């Protein structure tokens, strides 16, 4: 655990509001999460990182079972800045994943918050143009972000107005 503690500080340096190492046993998946992408998000079927292209909840649950630790981090975005902030954080999280990988944690893999915005529009009929940066959203993979965050002491609440500040969650699986 001590060897991984430096990544908590790195997450803050790249723009996270909070970050902590967690046991993967606290990560919750559910089939209902992915269906909310299908019926509620206009990116369904339009991004290679979104359903139906992203890993299924069943696959995600099995994959998480092959890890013991994860770095969970949160960040905030003001109204009107959500897309730009997510894009910035998606890039930063992918770069942190790579740093962790280069430190010898070869199984490191990240999941972000919300749809990928590196290509607009995304060409779902061809390979990704940014495979080193694009990562699936936790929700797209069936992770119950609210329950997972609450399991590890991170407060998450539904944003009720477009005037409210949004809080987002990302995850880097580490082994």
Going by helix content, strand content and strand pairing, the class is alpha+beta
Q: Spans of 5+ residues with little confidence (pLDDT < 50)?
A: none
The coarse overall form would be globular
Rg on CA atoms, Å: 15 Å
Helix content range: 25-40%
Element-by-element helix/strand order: HEHHEHEHE
Number of domains: 1
Mean pLDDT: 94
Strand content: 15-25%
Main sheet summary:
4 strands, antiparallel
User: What is the tally of helical segments?
Assistant: 5
The spatial strand order of the largest sheet comes to 1-2-4-3
- The rounded distance between the terminal residues' Cα atoms is 11 Å
Find the count of extended strands (DSSP E, 2+ residues): 4
Q: Care to give the gist of this entry?
A:
The protein is built from five helices and four strands.
Describe this structure as you would to a colleague.
The protein has a four-stranded antiparallel sheet with strand order 1-2-4-3, with helices on one face. It contains five helices and four strands, in the order H-E-H-H-E-H-E-H-E. The chain has helices at 6-13, 31-38, 57-64, 82-102, 145-151; strands at residues 18-23, 69-77, 109-111, 166-174. The model has no long low-confidence stretch (mean pLDDT 94). It is of the alpha+beta class and 175 residues long. The protein has one domain.
